[in-house]
Specification:
Helix content of chain B: 55-70%
Strand content of chain A: under 5%
Helix content of chain A: 55-70%
Number of strands of chain A: 0
Radius of gyration of chain A: 20 Å
Largest interface: A-B, 84 and 116 residues
Oligomer: heterodimer
Number of helices of chain B: 18
Radius of gyration of chain B: 25 Å
Largest sheet of chain B: 6 strands, parallel
Strand order of the largest sheet of chain B: 5-4-3-6-7-8
Chain lengths: 103, 465
């Protein structure tokens, strides 16, 4: 009997939820806003689906309706990726410490 | 062309880098490195996907152009956006993730062969369920975030919009969605897929309109979570580990933030989702309307009090963000420190319009993060502090949360501002806060009300220091 690959993906999914749970609880509350902007940026990894949708298929007609939705998704995800990471970077650069070394 | 196995390994690496990106946020020192990991992870995911498709013809050119256009728009927004507008920005970004998820689901539905999901009309049932779930959650995220964006931006009134039978309507729409997904799987008729998306768009709007302005921290966190689940749904459809891992991470992150925010208000998640606070408790808010004596002062009084104090705790709230008073506040604190006053900041979990909102604003004004404390860390210090300077906060300082079981905010953890020797309360008027209840603190003997705009008052205090 073979295990359906879906079960493997489902296992990855469930384990990732647990990883997310423990990792996010260890995020310091003062960084909750950057947490939201960075999670937003990484969830735009959905762009990989958009790229496949846009580029795959027959070369001669890349403006098939399925491809167009792919291209639209690429723009949206690209805005998010660049915007999300850069705004996170900008915020994190502002968090400074006093000169004396104390936590 | 790279092999499917190698591709999967690269996606796994991206996923791990994303985990490290979140892990980095456990302290400000490691956070910048974490963000870098996230960027690398994203670059890997995008490059290997392009390599795997292996189509370097005209389509590839379009791809680069679109990446460039989207990237420039994103970069432009990221550099131009003022820090006070961060909640709107995050809501706006969530809507884009949601819509992108919908688009990817649509193209997978229209052209399932490219994702190996079968052919149009006979898509694998599991894939069909996954893509309709992804599309549906994505669509809810999209319109919900748009409503949240409009409310935060002030284009739509922040007050809850409620009507009779609202929750039943939402429930029925939700059930219809589930039914339609079943039906779609059975019949594979295109039209149902579009109807699922349209109903989800509608549901997104209906879910968010009854939620009021000050509950936005919960809403934003919740939409953050939804965008993650949508990504995970698409990840299952496309059999892509990077998307599944990321979706799960983002989904649980948003869920935890929603939980923290709800706890900060001592309300259940459903209580927040099901609608406005002030709207339900009118009877209580009108109970104590009789005039009580209030002590009010001016900037000179405040400056005198604080200059002669040995310790001052600043309690910022949403009003500080509205008035953009964070820079003036920092200058005032600098002036106080020159006089040898010890100054710290106390931040309530739900202060502002999104988790961590106040911390970012203070960081923007160059306040060192080790002078900023969370509620549990600092609450005992109020008893030993000479002056509490409340700027733009209200409900989170209301002692009624501890004393009156009838109050709608009873049981909400509050900053024990009333324990300090004197309280300076910067506020434009005596009007009640979002919860629609009078703040007892205004009428205490040790409270001095400073009736003015937060920024103007703070600047005036700097002048008199």
């Amino acid at each position: 009997m073979e295990i359906d690959p879906f079960i493997f993906r489902f296992s990855i999914f469930i384990l990732s939820i647990f990883i997310g749970y423990y990792v996010v609880w260890s995020v310091t509350p003062s960084l909750h806003t950057p947490l939201m902007s960075v999670t937003n940026a990484i969830s735009s990894v959905i762009i990989v689906g958009a790229i496949i949708a846009a580029l795959a298929g027959k070369n001669e007609n890349i403006f098939d309706s399925a491809n167009i939705f792919g291209f639209l998704a690429i723009i949206l995800a690209a805005i998010n990726i660049f915007g999300g990471f850069l705004v996170t970077q900008r915020m994190l650069a502002m968090y400074k410490k006093k000169n004396k070394d104390k936590k | 062309m790279i092999s499917a196995n190698l591709l999967a390994v690269f996606y796994l690496i991206s996923g791990v880098l994303f985990i490290l990106a979140l892990r980095g946020l456990s302290s400000p020192e490691t956070s910048r490195q974490g963000n870098l990991f996230g960027i690398i992870g994203m670059a890997i995911a995008i490059s290997v996907t392009i390599a795997s498709v292996g189509n370097f013809s005209t389509g590839f050119l379009y791809l680069l152009i679109l990446l460039l256009i989207g990237g420039s728009i994103g970069a432009f927004i990221a550099f131009k956006i003022p820090m006070t507008a961060m909640p709107e920005l995050v809501a706006g970004f969530h809507s884009l993730v949601g819509l992108a998820a919908v688009f990817v689901a649509i193209s997978a539905f229209l052209n399932p062969e490219i994702f190996n999901l079968g052919s149009p009309g006979s898509i694998k049932i599991a894939s069909l369920i996954e893509m309709s779930l992804g599309a549906s959650i994505g669509a809810i995220t999209f319109t919900g975030s748009i409503v949240a964006f409009l409310k935060l931006r002030g284009i739509m009134p922040g007050s809850p919009i409620t009507f009779f039978g609202q929750h039943y309507l939402n429930l029925i729409l939700g059930l219809i969605l589930v039914g339609l997904i079943f039906y779609l799987c059975k019949t594979q008729i295109n039209i149902w897929f579009w109807i699922i998306i349209i109903i989800s768009f509608l549901l997104g709007v209906l879910l968010i309109i009854p939620i009021g302005g000050a509950d936005m921290p919960v809403v934003i966190s919740m939409l953050n979570s939804y965008s993650g689940w949508a990504a995970a749904g698409i990840g299952f459809t496309l059999e892509n580990t990077a998307l599944i891992i990321t979706g799960a991470l983002v989904g649980s992150s948003g869920a935890i933030l929603s939980y923290i925010m709800c706890k900060g208000m001592n309300r259940s998640f459903f209580n927040v989702i099901l609608g406005g606070w002030g709207a339900t408790d009118q009877s209580f808010s009108n109970k104590s309307q009789e005039q009580k004596p209030v002590k009010s002062g001016n900037a000179d009084d405040a400056a005198f009090l604080m200059k002669n104090a040995s310790s001052v705790i600043i309690v910022p709230g949403y009003g500080m963000a509205v008035a953009q008073a964070q820079h003036a506040l920092r200058e005032m604190v600098d002036a106080l420190k020159k006089n040898g006053v010890k100054v710290t900041y106390a931040i309530h979990p739900v202060a502002g319009r999104m988790p961590g909102h106040m911390n970012v604003l203070l960081a923007e004004a160059n306040v060192p993060y080790d002078e900023v404390f969370e509620l549990e860390e600092i609450n005992n210090d109020f008893a030993n502090c000479d002056v509490a300077y409340v700027i733009g906060a209200n409900d989170v300082t209301n002692p009624v949360a501890k004393s009156d079981p009838q109050s709608p905010i009873y049981g909400m953890p509050i900053l024990d501002v009333e324990k300090s020797k004197s309280v300076l309360f910067v506020k434009r008027s005596l009007s009640p806060g979002y919860a629609g209840i009078d703040n007892d603190l205004f009428y205490r003997d040790n409270t001095l009300m400073l009736f003015s705009d937060a920024k103007k008052m703070t600047e005036d205090i700097i002048k008199s220091l």
